[in-house]
């Protein structure tokens, strides 16, 4: 869990340094909304917390990356 927190902090620092505060806030807000909704849905389907965290982190990071690159996600 500590390594995840450290990873998220590093990603946040890179985003702020790369995009500036306004753009980084928008990206983090979009990620947070995606993750929250995904996690609720995943746990509602009866999956465990760890599985849902891994699944939602992967899915939401892919969406965020696609948005940064202006790509459509399958």
Q: Enumerate how many helices there are, as a single number.
A: 2
Low-confidence stretches: none
The main pleated sheet reads as:
none
Query: C-alpha Rg, in Å?
Result: 13 Å
Shape: globular
- Secondary-structure element pattern, one letter each: HH
Query: Which whole number gives the mean pLDDT?
Result: 81
Task: Count every beta strand, where a strand is a DSSP E run of 2 or more residues.
Answer: 0
Helix and strand content put the structural class at mainly alpha
What gap, in angstroms, lies between the N and C termini? Answer: 30 Å
Molecular structure report:
- With 74 residues, the chain is an all-alpha fold.
- The protein is built from 2 helices and no strands.
- It has helices at 2-44, 49-68.
- Helix 1 (2-44) packs across helix 2 (49-68).
- The chain is globular and about 40 Å long.
Write the layout of secondary structure elements.
Blueprint: H1 2-44, H2 49-68
Helix pairs in contact: 1-2
Features of this protein?
74 residues; mainly alpha; globular
Summarize the structure.
The protein has helices at residues 2-44, 49-68.
């Amino acid at each position: 869990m500590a390594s995840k927190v450290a990873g998220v902090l590093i990603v946040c620092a890179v985003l702020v340094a790369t995009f500036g505060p306004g753009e980084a806030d928008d990206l983090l807000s979009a990620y947070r909304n995606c993750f929250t909704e995904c996690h609720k849905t995943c746990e509602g389907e009866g999956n465990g917390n760890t599985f849902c965290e891994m699944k939602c982190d992967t899915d939401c990071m892919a969406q965020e990356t696609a948005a940064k690159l202006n790509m459509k996600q399958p």
